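Lab meeting prep.
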Amino acid sequence: MCLVHLVFRVHADMEVLLAGNRDEFFRRPSAPPAVIAREPAVHAGKDLEAGGTWMGRNAHGLLAAITNRYSTKPGGSERQVPPDVRSRGEIVLGLLGHVDAESAAEWVDRLPVARYRPFNLLFGDVLRFYYFSSEDGAPPRPLQPGFHALSNSTLDDHAWPKVARSHAFFEANRGLSGEDYLERLQFFFRDATPPDSLSTADRNEEIHGAMGAVMITTPEYGTVSSSIITAGGSLGERYYFADGQSLRGEGNSGDLGPYRLISFDD
């Protein structure tokens, strides 16, 4: 996932909103949100190649999302990883096996991060939310109430245009009702406008041109899905999802738009 929004305890109609776009190679298969684990039940999409997930929630009200971590500088490189590197998607699945944010934070702090390629995490519940990066050498950091945006750099790095645009979006729309905010947010996540006319030669530097847009649309790589999860407040527990084909306007269901409200009744 390459852009995540967190609205934490600053909107009257929702105690938490965790939402974002997942960017990936189109050839990599995935499944839409479903119950993918039990005890506790985990509601999330599934990466069918490696078996993990990029974003989800569990029955205890714990929410989590992960992004890859890249350098903010052109030509920057990731640290070396061992040949038996593990999938970062398993981290979110393991995290969502916990009952609350505090126990999840303790688990994350003990992760063998060297076994994974670099990553960022946002996770928590209506009481506490945390940010963690495998590259910071620090335990999960508790967040104060507010708005945060995360892409493939550090949290709230305004050098990334999609992060700066995210903060501007929140400030422009924070006074709306929860329902109206969700409607505007769905349009925001479908914005493929490049921040400039420059090209990005390195896929790991999603800053310029089509790769710097909120919704990436290139021939082989781009936004493959979008998710919006709410918890608490008058909106309650909701989970919206749109696949990449629908986001690009291919096969939309009329006036309903590309996002659909997921039900996990089983």
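Slide two material, second protein:
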Amino acid sequence: MNIEKYPSKLLETAVNEFTKLPGIGRKSALRLVLHLLRQDAEAVNFFGNSIIQLRNEIKHCKVCHNISDTEICNICGNHARNQSVICVVENIRDVMSVENTQQYNGLYHVLGGIISPMDGIGPAELEIESLVKRVEEGTIVEIILALSTTMEGDTTNFYIFRKLKDFPVKITTLARGVSVGDELEYTDEITLGRSLTNRIPYESSLGK
């Protein structure tokens, strides 16, 4: 086995930390660390402090669980948006994907994942009960299930449908312009926008 030799323990430690990031191998980590070393101290300090500040000060919206600088995120706090429609997504990246389509003007609900028994993630680990409570308030007229079209996403959709089906709320899902097996964040904006605009009643998607 070829073990890399580093001229500095500090360099090696920094490289090791960068390799903990997703998709970053040792060569990429070394390239990033050496790039930082070429920057002036002020720029590197700003970079490091921005990460520390993010970790220590970031909040999650009390309503939709999206990340936010405040207790209530800018989307939930924007009364110009349609307050009667909720788009249910898996994670924060999916909120960004839907927003980038510019085809949606309602609210969101971030589950924080999808049901995946293989990964030890059940309904209790997700923000499903808080979604039910939002519907119970009686101001929501439509729930859009915008989860990935994977087996886990479909399972989560069905679970949520069963929890909400007795409420007087329309439950819809994305039109299948999003291919089966696709994750929302990797779907192009035009396709996602059309799938959102042409959404269908959830019950119509069952068995297909």
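Talking points for slide two:
The first strand starts at residue 59 and ends at 60.
The chain has a mean pLDDT of 90.
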